User: Fold this.
Amino acid sequence: MSESTLSTPEEAPETGITPFRRVIKSYVLRAGRMGPGQTRAFEQYGPRFLLTYAPDVSLDAAAAFGRQAPLIMEIGFGMGGATADIAQVRPQDNFLCCEVHEPGVGALLKLCGERGIDNIRIFRHDAVEVLDHMLPEQSLDGVHIFFPDPWHKSRHHKRRLIQPAFVNRLARHLKPGGYLHLATDWQPYAEQMLAVLSDEPLLQNTAAAGSTGYVPKPDYRPLTKFENRGLKLGHGVWDLVFQRV
Assistant:
């Protein structure tokens, strides 16, 4: 299984039109208890790194980060190890991270405090609602979604996060020239991701012409322990990077 806690909920009712924000959530709640270190991290570092979800109040990113810089949104960061690594190798960028799993939020808070990482801010809230109510369209320079739940069984494919409506939502929140970076270790999901992103008119694949459509792993994305173990067992990993036209 992938490390991320991403998914989509049940489909919309067959009758009537359900508002987008009620159709898709960016997570599925997982059971988990915080350790004492994660609990202390909430108390010690939460006031510095946690942002408060405020519906219909546009986020002032410059004020939240204390500087003006490219804004990258990460949806579902798991336990936050890769997120912290990326933020450290890209200090010129601001990373707006959404996760509802409290142990994961606590773990990333701990990493930020211990490593002195200051270019991460965290919403402990559903990323779709943050997009809908706090971020204007064309406000993001990039979006990262790494190893979302693949929902292996065919009857559960409708729960996958990467669906046309959600991808269009993400694309409209990207600035022209901004990018969407997805990664998965499940080939059927990689194929669905590629098909959905390729069908979105606001996005263009950055993969080389004539290639499979996937890109080599960008240098900034580290290998997680989970991923490295899978690669040693011969499992594949697929990265997709599309750009807003």
